Amino acid sequence: MVLLTMMAVVTIGVVRLRNLFAVVILGGIYSFLMASVMIMLDAVDVAMTEASVGAGISTVLMLGVLHLTKMEEIKPAHTPLLPLFVAVVTAGGLVYGTIDLPPFGDPSGIIHQNVAPYYLQNSITDTSAPNVVTAVLASYRGFDTLGETVVIFTAGIAVLLLLKGRRPLPASGDGKAKSRTRRRRRRK
Amino acid sequence: MKFDTILRVGTKLLLPFILVFGLYVQFHGDYGPGGGFQAGVIAAAMVIFYAITFGLDAAKRAMPPILVETLIGLGVLLYTGVGVVSMLKGGEFLNYSVLEHDPVAGQHIGILLVELGVLITVFATMTAIFYSFAGRGR
Predict the structure, then answer these.
(1) CB contact under 8 A, A160 and B132
(2) ipTM of the complex
């Protein structure tokens, strides 16, 4: 609860601040708080990924982008009412969706009835890997992980194509390239 | 930052430990938290750290961009290669059990190789993205 409150405070700070450097650092802090929440939920693998990718690499890349742009965010040209409306409606839909979820940690939940018991019981005898997460990711769900790796591969190729052209890109193309990179990175 | 002694010495001291920690996360992924993805990011963080302290050119000398770009594809190739080998040995695509005589040992080797492929691709992609971002605007 304390962590979630701190995350809310950081989010408000990100929205209010106009200094982009502070915003990037706050984003890193947010990722660390998120990683702490993941540890509280016993999802250590996810926490590790969040800490290294969200707080580490993303922050460094955003600082690299800051090096190329200005430090201060310009005032938005339009009113924030429409984005606010979209955000509130989306958040409302998501919260409405959580009402139907089984209680947290409930062993009789639907997702714990399907293949999860099989994985938990047989992963050591099948794969000799004591970490079930690794066994599921690399062996039982090897196709999914292959897909993820190909996604990262594609993202890398796309960034190289966009940013490493032989010809200098026109100035108007810069923002588009950056936002696309950001989006691809977030998808992971 | 090139002439700051504390930063230079501190970076040089830390770099091998970062790499060892990355490899630990990689090869201990069977037993504890971690795996190819996290290890790749940690290894890429090492290169980025080096580049921040010693400059991009020094980092590019230590880890040439052409090598990085080759590694991006090599990781995926290793991953799919494991799948193809398991097909050639008479199993399904990515069925590691046929890689060795003992299915469990086959699974062990398969997971190790596949995670290595993930490590290579993630490391190379992150480094390549950093290179292309940091190399702009000069």
Answers:
(1) yes
(2) 0.82
Distance CA B31, CA B20 (A): 17
Contacts of A53 in chain B (CB under 8 A): 41
pLDDT for residue B130 is more than 80: yes
For chain A, helix (H) and strand (E) counts, in that order, are 9, 0
Residue A95 has what pLDDT? 92
- Report the predicted TM-score, pTM, of the whole model to 2 decimal places: 0.78
Which of B79, B80, B110 is closest, CB to CB, to A139? B110
Per-residue tokens: A23: 């915003």
Q: In this predicted structure, what is the pLDDT of residue A91? A: 94
Asked if residue A79 is part of any domain, the answer here is: no
Contact B125 A152 (CB under 8 A): yes
How many degrees, rounded to 5, is the angle at CA B75 between CA B70 and CA B81?
Answer: 115
Q: What is the pLDDT of residue B99?
A: 76
Residue B35's closest CA among A28, A156, A149?
A: A149
Q: Is residue A7 part of a domain?
A: yes
- Please indicate, yes or no, if residue A33 is contained in any of the structural domains: yes
Which residue type does A17 have? L
Q: Is residue A104 part of a domain?
A: no
- How many domains does the structure of chain A reveal? 1
Across the interface, whether the CB atoms of B118 and A127 are under 8 A apart is answered: no
Window A:73-132, CB contacts with B under 8 Å: 125-131
What domain range includes position A52? 1-74
Which residue's entry shows tokens 């090139």?
Answer: B2
| Interior angle at CA B94, CA B89 and CA B95, nearest 5 | 60
